[in-house]
Amino acid sequence: GSVVASYPYDDSPTHRPRGVYSKSADDEVFKYLAKAYASHHPIMRTGKPNCPGEEGETFQDGITNGAQWYDVEGGMQDYNYVWANCFEITLELSCCKYPPASELQKEWENNRESLLAFIEKV
Protein backbone atom coordinates (compact mmCIF):
# COMPACT_ATOMS: atom_id res chain seq x y z
CA GLY A 1 0.00 0.00 0.00
CA SER A 2 0.78 3.67 -0.06
CA VAL A 3 -0.97 6.99 0.45
CA VAL A 4 -1.65 8.44 -3.00
CA ALA A 5 -4.42 9.14 -5.53
CA SER A 6 -3.69 7.32 -8.79
CA TYR A 7 -5.40 8.00 -12.11
CA PRO A 8 -5.55 6.41 -15.62
CA TYR A 9 -3.93 5.00 -17.43
CA ASP A 10 -2.42 2.25 -15.31
CA ASP A 11 -1.27 0.45 -18.45
CA SER A 12 1.19 1.79 -21.01
CA PRO A 13 1.95 0.85 -24.62
CA THR A 14 5.50 -0.22 -23.67
CA HIS A 15 4.52 -2.18 -20.52
CA ARG A 16 7.70 -1.01 -18.83
CA PRO A 17 7.41 -1.77 -15.10
CA ARG A 18 7.42 1.92 -14.12
CA GLY A 19 8.22 5.43 -15.22
CA VAL A 20 6.01 5.73 -18.31
CA TYR A 21 3.40 8.49 -18.15
CA SER A 22 0.37 7.01 -19.87
CA LYS A 23 -1.87 9.98 -20.65
CA SER A 24 -5.58 9.50 -21.24
CA ALA A 25 -7.76 11.80 -23.33
CA ASP A 26 -9.22 13.11 -20.06
CA ASP A 27 -5.90 13.49 -18.26
CA GLU A 28 -6.63 16.99 -16.92
CA VAL A 29 -9.98 15.90 -15.48
CA PHE A 30 -8.38 12.92 -13.77
CA LYS A 31 -5.61 15.08 -12.31
CA TYR A 32 -8.25 17.54 -11.08
CA LEU A 33 -10.22 14.76 -9.34
CA ALA A 34 -7.11 13.18 -7.83
CA LYS A 35 -5.91 16.55 -6.52
CA ALA A 36 -9.36 17.28 -5.09
CA TYR A 37 -8.98 14.22 -2.89
CA ALA A 38 -5.26 14.44 -2.15
CA SER A 39 -5.22 18.13 -1.24
CA HIS A 40 -7.55 17.54 1.71
CA HIS A 41 -5.73 14.50 3.13
CA PRO A 42 -3.11 15.38 5.78
CA ILE A 43 -0.61 12.73 4.63
CA MET A 44 -1.45 12.39 0.94
CA ARG A 45 -1.10 16.11 0.22
CA THR A 46 2.55 16.06 1.39
CA GLY A 47 3.44 13.60 -1.36
CA LYS A 48 5.57 11.71 1.16
CA PRO A 49 3.68 8.67 2.52
CA ASN A 50 6.82 7.39 4.28
CA CYS A 51 5.76 3.76 4.01
CA PRO A 52 8.08 1.14 5.54
CA GLY A 53 10.47 -0.12 2.89
CA GLU A 54 9.54 2.76 0.55
CA GLU A 55 10.61 5.74 2.66
CA GLY A 56 12.04 7.59 -0.35
CA GLU A 57 8.92 7.25 -2.50
CA THR A 58 7.31 10.61 -3.30
CA PHE A 59 4.30 11.77 -5.32
CA GLN A 60 4.01 15.39 -6.44
CA ASP A 61 0.82 16.85 -4.92
CA GLY A 62 -0.01 13.37 -3.56
CA ILE A 63 -1.12 12.08 -6.97
CA THR A 64 0.32 9.89 -9.71
CA ASN A 65 -0.43 8.57 -13.14
CA GLY A 66 -0.87 4.84 -12.63
CA ALA A 67 1.60 3.62 -15.26
CA GLN A 68 4.18 6.16 -14.21
CA TRP A 69 4.09 4.65 -10.71
CA TYR A 70 3.91 1.04 -11.91
CA ASP A 71 2.39 -0.57 -15.00
CA VAL A 72 -0.75 -2.68 -14.49
CA GLU A 73 -2.12 -4.45 -17.55
CA GLY A 74 -5.88 -5.12 -17.50
CA GLY A 75 -6.72 -3.08 -14.40
CA MET A 76 -10.29 -2.22 -13.43
CA GLN A 77 -9.67 1.55 -13.46
CA ASP A 78 -8.62 1.50 -17.13
CA TYR A 79 -11.24 -1.05 -18.15
CA ASN A 80 -14.09 1.01 -16.70
CA TYR A 81 -12.79 4.19 -18.31
CA VAL A 82 -12.33 2.67 -21.78
CA TRP A 83 -15.43 0.46 -21.93
CA ALA A 84 -17.95 2.25 -19.68
CA ASN A 85 -16.80 5.89 -19.80
CA CYS A 86 -16.52 5.72 -15.99
CA PHE A 87 -14.09 8.22 -14.49
CA GLU A 88 -12.38 6.35 -11.66
CA ILE A 89 -9.33 7.10 -9.62
CA THR A 90 -7.65 4.65 -7.27
CA LEU A 91 -7.11 5.78 -3.71
CA GLU A 92 -4.29 4.16 -1.77
CA LEU A 93 -5.22 5.16 1.78
CA SER A 94 -2.65 3.43 3.96
CA CYS A 95 0.78 1.85 3.86
CA CYS A 96 -0.89 -1.12 5.54
CA LYS A 97 -3.42 -3.06 3.46
CA TYR A 98 -5.25 -4.23 6.59
CA PRO A 99 -4.96 -1.60 9.33
CA PRO A 100 -5.96 -2.79 12.79
CA ALA A 101 -9.35 -1.76 14.15
CA SER A 102 -7.62 0.55 16.61
CA GLU A 103 -6.47 2.75 13.68
CA LEU A 104 -9.79 2.98 11.82
CA GLN A 105 -10.98 6.14 13.61
CA LYS A 106 -7.74 7.90 12.64
CA GLU A 107 -8.13 6.70 9.04
CA TRP A 108 -11.66 8.08 8.97
CA GLU A 109 -10.44 11.44 10.27
CA ASN A 110 -7.65 11.51 7.67
CA ASN A 111 -10.11 10.82 4.84
CA ARG A 112 -13.37 12.55 5.82
CA GLU A 113 -12.64 15.98 4.29
CA SER A 114 -11.09 14.36 1.21
CA LEU A 115 -14.21 12.28 0.64
CA LEU A 116 -16.47 15.29 0.99
CA ALA A 117 -14.34 17.37 -1.38
CA PHE A 118 -14.32 14.52 -3.90
CA ILE A 119 -18.10 14.04 -3.70
CA GLU A 120 -18.62 17.77 -4.23
CA LYS A 121 -16.94 17.48 -7.64
CA VAL A 122 -19.90 15.46 -8.94
UniProtKB/TrEMBL annotation:
Positions of region (Disordered): 1-20
GO biological process, one term: protein processing
GO molecular function: metallocarboxypeptidase activity; zinc ion binding
Pfam families with a match to the protein in the record: Peptidase_M14
Active site: 92 (proton donor/acceptor)
Keyword Hydrolase: yes
Ranges that cross the membrane: none
UniProt entry tagged with the keyword Protease: yes
GO CC annotation: extracellular space
Domain Peptidase M14: 1-122
SUPFAM superfamilies the UniProt entry points to: Zn-dependent exopeptidases (SSF53187)
Keywords annotated in UniProt: Carboxypeptidase, Hydrolase, Protease
Family: Belongs to the peptidase M14 family.
Protein name, entry field: CBPD Carboxypeptidase
Organism lineage string: Eukaryota, Metazoa, Chordata, Craniata, Vertebrata
